[in-house]
């Protein structure tokens, strides 16, 4: 069984940066998908960025393209999300997710394991 633990959330002023981390433990799939999703109050959960763990194929939502960078350290079984030039619209609970890989890129429906989430708040 895989367990995901997020860290690195917090509060930042607009234009600032934060780095989230998600450490995976347990029976980790070495050929799988990991990703970050977020949910703001009153909104549906949305995909932010995904990465395939063996090949590092990345995908980003248009709203974060060019500002956020997803990465994966296979030696540490840890995924990261570097968030730069943040705006108040980035305020949300951020969730780490993992699952088996079905194709070259990873998508929301690939995920079947979720972390507890970490809150990110960006003030204007």
Quick structural overview:
The protein has 124 residues and is mostly beta strands. It is built from no helices and eleven strands.
Give descriptors for this structure:
124 residues; four-stranded antiparallel β-sheet; mainly beta; seven-stranded mixed β-sheet
Explain how this protein is built.
- The chain is mainly beta and 124 residues long.
- It has no helices and 11 strands.
- The chain has strands at 2-7, 10-13, 18-26, 32-39, 46-52, 58-60, 68-73, 78-83, 92-100, 113-114, 118-123.
- The strands form 2 sheets. Strands 2, 4, 5, 6, 9, 10 and 11 form a 7-stranded mixed beta sheet that branches. Strands 1-3-8-7 form a 4-stranded antiparallel beta sheet, with no helix packed on it.
- It is globular, with a radius of gyration of 13 Å.
What's the layout of helices and strands?
Blueprint: E1 2-7, E2 10-13, E3 18-26, E4 32-39, E5 46-52, E6 58-60, E7 68-73, E8 78-83, E9 92-100, E10 113-114, E11 118-123
Parallel strand pairs: 2-11
Antiparallel strand pairs: 1-3, 3-8, 4-5, 4-9, 5-6, 7-8, 9-10, 9-11
């Amino acid at each position: 069984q895989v367990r995901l633990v997020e860290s690195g959330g917090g509060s930042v002023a607009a234009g600032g940066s934060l780095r989230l981390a998600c450490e995976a433990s347990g029976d980790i799939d070495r050929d799988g998908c990991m990703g970050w999703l977020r949910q703001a109050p009153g909104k549906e959960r949305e995909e932010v960025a995904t990465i395939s763990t063996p090949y590092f194929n990345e995908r980003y939502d248009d709203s974060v393209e060019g500002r956020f960078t997803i990465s994966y350290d296979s030696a540490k079984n840890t995924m990261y999300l570097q968030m730069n030039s943040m705006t108040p619209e980035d305020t949300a609970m951020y969730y780490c997710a993992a699952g088996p890989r079905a194709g070259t890129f990873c998508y929301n429906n690939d995920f079947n394991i979720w972390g507890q989430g970490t809150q990110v708040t960006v003030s204007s």
